[in-house]
TrEMBL record, chain A:
Gene3D superfamilies: VKOR domain. It comes from the Bacteria. The keyword Transmembrane helix applies. InterPro entries: VKOR, VKOR_sf. The keyword Transmembrane applies. This is Vitamin K epoxide reductase. The lineage of its organism: Bacteria, Pseudomonadati, Bacteroidota, Cytophagia, Cytophagales. It holds the Pfam family VKOR. Keywords: Disulfide bond, Membrane, Oxidoreductase, Quinone, Redox-active center, Transmembrane, Transmembrane helix. It comes from Pontibacter flavimaris. Residues 23-147 form the Vitamin K epoxide reductase domain. GO terms for molecular function: oxidoreductase activity; quinone binding. The chain crosses the membrane at residues 24-43, 75-94, 101-123, 129-151. It is a multi-pass membrane protein. One of its GO terms (cellular component) is membrane.
Automatic annotation (TrEMBL), chain B:
Residues 2-95 form the SPW repeat-containing integral membrane domain. It comes from Pontibacter flavimaris. Coiled coil: none annotated. The chain crosses the membrane at residues 34-50, 57-74, 80-97. Keywords: Membrane, Transmembrane, Transmembrane helix. Pfam families: SPW. The keyword Transmembrane helix applies. InterPro entries: SPW (IPR005530). This is SPW repeat-containing integral membrane domain-containing protein. It comes from the Bacteria.
């Protein structure tokens, strides 16, 4: 099987190629590293947190009421989110848009809410606490940058699911990538 | 894409402008900028990629809001009013710039629910072998 055959029909490139996916995985890993560092500060493993621009900003934000609304600090939740994104970006081959649509669609859906929550937290920093947290802003930027490049692959999978439906093949089996439906729809 | 790079920078500018232009004490004005700024920057960044270029249009209502905000919220600071309206006009205008689309996406997002689209026609042309 050549690389050309992995290109979805009607597309000029393959959105599931490694060249397309690796940058997102790298971004997610950077996000994971920063969020883990912030979570360790929130869990009092570190006494101080790096803040080059906004004085006491990071400390204020990371120890705020909003950051402790849930049983685990929001930094730890973010770290889990980035790890899920990185894993969902790595799993599967270059034809995964049709061999395992579930992971591609899960990947697209994981990237969306992470970006949304990050932006919401960026808004809450100055509005509720009158301060900014440099590393929190950096992670928010990373999660927003990941949305666009993850969506093209999801589009290819959704178009595949549409062809599966029109061919009257089981959507359930195609979604989970059952061997028996592989190749019945291109 | 250049238009959406500018819009991302305008969104970031809104986040910083109260501190730079010196009206940080006006809570209503700064809150408005601190809410609209990240939203504009996010939509602009998402529309950097061709497959999600349509998201640029989500910034049109936000841009129009910035034009109205000084009057609806009653801004009492001329600098802030001028800043909000200027940024609002620029964001609205730049959001309409579609730019070049060089790749093909099987008919795009509407092809997920419409019939007889590019990806469906192209798939029909290909031999249906057992692709494992």
């Amino acid at each position: 099987m050549s690389k050309e055959e992995a290109i979805p029909p009607g597309w000029s490139y393959n959105p599931a190629s490694w060249g397309q996916r690796m940058p997102i995985v790298v971004a997610a890993m950077v996000g994971f590293a920063i969020a883990t560092y912030l979570a360790l500060f929130q869990l009092k493993v570190f006494d101080t947190v790096w803040e080059p621009f906004f004085g006491d900003g990071s400390r204020k934000i990371l120890t705020s009421k909003t950051s402790q609304m849930l049983p685990i600090p929001d930094g730890a939740l973010g770290a889990i989110g980035y790890l899920v994104d990185a894993l969902a970006g790595v799993i599967g081959g270059i034809r995964r848009w049709r061999t395992m649509p579930w992971i591609v669609i899960a990947f697209g859906l994981a990237v969306g809410p992470l970006g949304f929550v990050s932006v919401l937290l960026v808004i809450l920093q100055p509005v509720l606490y009158d301060s900014w947290c440099t590393l929190c802003l950096a992670t928010a930027l990373i999660s927003v940058v990941m949305i666009g490049p993850a969506m093209d692959e999801m589009l290819a999978s959704l178009q595949y699911m549409k062809r599966v439906k029109e061919a009257k093949v089981s959507l359930w089996k195609a979604f989970w990538g059952y061997k028996e439906v592989q190749g019945r729809v291109i | 894409m250049w238009a959406h790079v500018l819009n991302a920078l305008l969104g970031i500018w809104l986040m910083a402008s109260a501190a730079i232009l010196g009206y940080s004490d006006a809570k209503t004005i700064t809150d408005n900028e601190h809410i609209a700024g990240p939203i504009i920057a996010s939509f602009a960044i998402i529309s950097w990629w061709e497959a999600t270029r349509v998201v640029r249009l989500y910034n049109v209502p936000v841009g129009l809001w910035l034009l109205l905000a000084p009057w609806v919220l009653g801004f009492d600071n001329t600098t802030a009013t001028v800043n909000s309206m200027l940024v609002g006009a620029l964001v609205t205008g730049l959001s309409f710039v579609k730019g070049k689309i060089k790749d093909v996406y099987g008919g795009g997002w509407s092809a997920v629910w419409k019939s007889d689209t590019l990806h469906a026609r192209e798939a029909r042309k290909q031999p249906r072998t057992n692709l494992k």
